[in-house]
Specification:
250 residues, mainly beta, four-stranded antiparallel beta sheet, 11% helix, 33% strand, extended
């Protein structure tokens, strides 16, 4: 055995001993911490919670026992209209005060699709979003969208619907003088929709796309689906809309 062999063996033993020491003194593995924001249980309130964008958000519970609350719009008299998506329109009295009151009877005059034959548990029919006219205190105009059932396709076993934009006038707890301002094409889907008034009393209507059988509908201008629509408050089309002069465009 040469001196080099002895040196190599000694070096190997030293390295192994050093590794053993490192392993024996390594800190214990840390527990895996879940990522994201910890969910907050809804108690009696008020309470605070964190979001990805903002910390220490204070929450006060205004109403309970709602079915799919989807949209809220404040009225000039401190009340608010609340949409239970696909079902009905509710009224909350004194929503900005210390003791808000959810009126048990719903606003009448809104289409009800809860008892539609052939409707599946995941079909989103009925009222979607609600908005009030910028001059609501004068005209009491309420705008809402809903998915209107127009038939049933026995071959595909699917309901046939179309999106509708409606303007009505709020009198007490009922909508009167309802008028269809905009109607989409018949579809087999039940996409959501949103409403927002902009400058000049122009109403912007965001309409969901079609996912069954017509995948490129959102890229075409011959239908209203998968678009952000821009209309006057009476439903007419502004002359400066991007496709107002395009042949065949809705």
């Amino acid at each position: 055995m040469t001196f080099n062999d002895v040196s190599k063996r000694a070096l190997t033993r030293a390295v192994c001993a050093a590794v053993a020491v490192i392993l024996s003194t390594a800190p214990p593995a840390r527990a895996v911490v879940p990522m994201g924001i910890r969910p907050q249980s809804v108690g009696a309130g008020p309470y605070c919670f964190d979001s990805a964008e903002q910390h220490d958000i204070r929450v006060d519970v205004l109403a309970r026992g709602l079915s799919h609350p989807y949209s809220l719009v404040f009225l000039p008299n401190a009340d608010a209209l609340l949409v239970e998506r696909g079902t009905r329109l509710r009224l909350i009295r004194n929503v900005t005060c210390a003791t808000p009151l959810l009126v048990q009877t719903s606003i009448t005059g809104v289409p009800n699709s809860t008892n539609t034959q052939h409707a599946g548990p995941d079909d989103v029919l009925g009222i979607q979003d609600v908005a009030i006219h910028p001059d609501f205190s004068k005209n009491h105009f309420v705008y809402y969208t809903f998915n209107r059932v127009v038939g049933f396709d026995a071959q595909s076993t699917q309901l046939r619907t179309k999106i509708v934009l409606v303007r009505a006038r709020l009198e007490g707890s009922q909508l009167v003088d309802s008028k269809d301002l905009l109607t989409g094409e018949v579809s087999h889907d039940f996409g959501g929709s949103r409403l927002l008034f902009g400058q000049g009393n122009l109403l912007y209507v965001a309409v969901g796309g079609i996912s069954k059988g017509d995948l490129d509908a959102a890229q075409r201008t011959d239908n209203l689906y998968g678009k952000v629509l821009r209309v006057h408050d009476d439903g007419t089309i502004p002359a400066d809309n991007p496709f107002a002069r395009t042949p065949g465009a809705r």
